[in-house]
Amino acid sequence: MHSTLRQRTTRRTHTKNRAAKTAAAVLAGALALTLTACGGDDGKDKEGTGGGTQETGSTVTLPKLDGESLEVSAVWTGPEQANFKKVLAEFEKRTGAKVTFVPAQDPIINFLGSKIAGGEPPDVAMLPQVGAIKQAVDKKWAKPVGKEAQEQLTKNYSQGWQDLGKVDGTQYGVYFKAANKSLIWYNTTVFDNAGATEPKTWKEFLDTAQTIYDSGVTPVSVGGADGWTLTDWFENIYLSQAGPEKYDQLAKHEIKWTDPSVKDALTTLGELFGKKDYIAGGADGALQTDFPTSVQQTFTGGDQPKAGMVFEGDFAGINITQAKAEIGKDAKVFPFPAVGAEAPVVSGGDAAVLLKDSKAGQALLTFLASPDAATIWAKEGGYLSPNKSVDLASYPNDVQRDMAKALIDAGDDFRFDMSDQAPQAFGGTPGAGEWKALQDFLKNPKDVAGTQATLEADAAKAYGD
Q: Mind telling me which SUPFAM superfamilies this protein's record contains (predicted)?
């Protein structure tokens, strides 16, 4: 569930430090001003080409694929899977193709490897990591994006989001789902009862946590059973504290995890993890709590939930809704607090990659690169699209509309999730690499040096250093 935004700092190292900081400030400022305030297409037909037909109100021409079938694999479960199936159902309706969703397990590269070894790979896979796209290309599994899909990408996506799907200059991935992973959601009843206010800095965040604790509610819920949530904690602190240039260097392992900047970030994170009374269930409880539960337990239990705040991306909205809490009323959100000069802005996403080069598979990538496909899921909530042609009115509430606008307005100046850029063995495997090291750190946040040493050893092995 990595979109789930895994909902995870672009490799665009040519983006200048100042531009990145300015964009981060603009995006964080936009979020601060708008996220707590709650309350594309031109609709014209176009002539089909290449045997395709054009639905009324659609923006993309798709071929007729009667009698053809394809399989699509992703790690999405629950509402995410259900909403994606609605997208696939529309593709079936427009083309006549039969699409089967194949549930995958983490790490998806291993899952795909077993499928390919058995001679039964899916036609398309939704990959939640930049590193996974590169691995799929290196293994010669991935097929390049075709002309029609590239036309949609060029028309609807910023260069930064296109480049994330490229390997050595060739387009392989279509980023269909994005995430803003620099958000903290809070229970408004808890904040009101405690007299707490939205913090803007890390110090203010810790002060707010103390205020909530003093009111009789545990401040923070952590889904530590899912190691990726812990990497997101680290990445936001590191980006804000060390800055974009260092972030880019660490993402590519150009500097070691034993660098003093990593020590500083872990020490800062330890200021929260070291306060066991601040975390629902303490470290042991957090390590047994998956991400959906970490969100839901923040918004159930009346005025005595298990926690007052929970960190994660916009996709947490799905779990908030499942807890029968109303976004904008029962649940509000503020940007991840600034540790350094600027508040961090970390993005993540899931890209469609073709494993079988067929007419049907290429047509699905074309559809997923269009605003038509993104609009279907946008209306369901718990989703952000990097597609700049999606009408903001498609999103179900002001909170999500503001998140989507901030994402699009950031253009190319954002940072993509660091662990998702890493080789999957280091940045995306349960019980191993960065996930395991940070789970161990949650249990023992005083062991900064030991955590750094473990991270560096695992990174060096994964990067082949």
A: Periplasmic binding protein-like II
pLDDT (tens digit, 9 = 90+) per residue, 180-239? Answer: 999 999 999 999 999 999 999 999 999 999 999 999 999 999 999 999 999 999 999 999
**Number of independent structural domains in the chain:** 2
Whole-angstrom distance between the N-terminal and C-terminal Cα of the chain?
Answer: 29
SS3 171: strand
Strand partners, 347: 180, 416
Domain co-membership, 245 together with 321? yes
- Do 315 and 209 share a structural domain? yes
Write b or e for each residue in 413-425: b if 16 or more Cβ atoms lie within 10 A of its Cβ, otherwise e. Answer: bbbbbbbbbbbbb
Q: Is 99 helix (H, G, I), strand (E, B) or coil?
A: strand
On whether both 187 and 173 belong to a single domain, the answer is no
Q: Are the beta carbons of 422 and 130 closer than 8 angstroms?
A: no
Q: Which residues, 6 or more positions from 14, have their beta carbon under 8 angstroms from its beta carbon?
A: none
Of 462, 464, 406, which Cα lies nearest the Cα of 29? 406
Angle, helix 433-443 to helix 260-273, in steps of 10 degrees: 50
pLDDT of residue 57: 57
Question: Does the residue 335 lie in any domain?
Answer: yes
Burial of residue 213, with CB atoms counted within 10 A of its CB: 0-12 exposed, 13-18 middle, 19 or more buried:
middle
* Predicted TM-score of the model (pTM): 0.81
Q: What is the CATH number of the domain that holds 296?
A: 3.40.190.10
- What percentage of the chain carries pLDDT values higher than 90? 81
Residue 154: its H or E element: helix 147-156
User: Does residue 20 belong to any structural domain of this protein?
Assistant: no
Distance CA 178, CA 4 (A): 9
pLDDT above 70 covers what percent of the chain?
88
| DSSP label of 336 | P
Burial class (CB in 10 A: 0-12, 13-18, 19+), 47: exposed
Burial of residue 464 (number of CB atoms within 10 Å: 0-12, 13-18, 19+): exposed
Span of 42-46, 257-261, 301-305, 316-320 with lowest mean pLDDT: 42-46
Query: What confidence tens digit (pLDDT) does each residue in 126-149 have?
Result: 999 899 999 999 999 999 999 999
Q: Which of 319, 344, 369 is the last residue of a domain?
A: 344
Yes or no: say if 342 and 240 are a contact pair by the CB < 8 Å rule: yes
150/239 same-domain check: no
Separation CA 37–CA 52 (nearest Å): 43
46 found inside a domain: no
The distance from CA 420 to its chain's CA centroid, rounded to whole angstroms, is: 9
CA 199 to CA 337: how far, in whole Å? 7
Range of the domain at 253: 183-344
- CB 13: neighbour CB atoms within 10 A? 14
